[in-house]
Amino acid sequence: MSEQQPLSASWQQSIDLYIAFARNEKHYSTATIDAYLRHLETSAHYFSQFVANWQAIEVENVKGLLAKLKSRELSARTINLHLSCLRSFYKFLIRKGLAKANPVELVKGPKYTKPLPKNLDVDQVNQLLEIVPEDSLAIRDKAMMELMYSSGLRLSELASLNLTDKGAIFNGLLTVLGKGGKERVIPVGRKAISAVKEWLKVRAEFANPNELALFTSKQKRRLSIRQIRARMKKWGIEQGLSANVHPHKLRHSFASHILESSGDLRAVQELLGHSNLSTTQVYTHLDFQHLAKVYDNTHPRAKKK
After folding, report:
1. CA max distance for the chain
2. For 194-213, what is the mean pLDDT?
3. Is 274 among the residues known to form the active site?
């Protein structure tokens, strides 16, 4: 799909309105907003060959787009994300009175199996975190990994922590701003608290006096998401783990280990900041039989007398 020509106002203005809504009201991440903008502009370039504006699009046009996406040999996941973006976009247009119907609702994307996230077992996590720091960078990295595993932080949440959060960390209850701008309070374990305290003793080596970020780099500014990923991968190799170590795997390991010990799915949902229980179910490798057992043992109408 060629995107060489700029879109006309009838197409671009609606996209701009939606992107502003996603950024300022829904508080979507920069990565999500970039993906939505890319999907919508790709769609507009395709549709503009056949109709005048978003309001004129019909189901058959969407099916044509679906066929075009498939012809580019995109993955089923990418195609479904594209259609999901369009569905959300049309819901927005309808609420704003800019469209009367959602032509994407009746179009189904290709089936695909969402891969289950893999976690580290408890022994592997202990192996990873049993770092004996030999320099300040190792002290920092250990603090980041301890904190992520202790509290199930998202990578973006870890990267956005500020020095002003240290009081909450030391008190064992940290408030973070998650997806969609939703706040949640999460506990912080004693080992993570101790590791952060050790980092703060040497942080001045890596931070300018006015730097707000809790975790900083040699360049004396906030560590980027990319840098955090690279450091965790490095430590996985250095600590002799066969599994690739990345931030999401630590978050998933946190969730899996809490669930294995407690069996409390709702608690894990709250700790992770998931809006829907179904998200937590997939995230923690739960199968239907386990859910059915939880239901039978806990639901007032299901308990056996």
Report:
1. 70
2. 95
3. yes
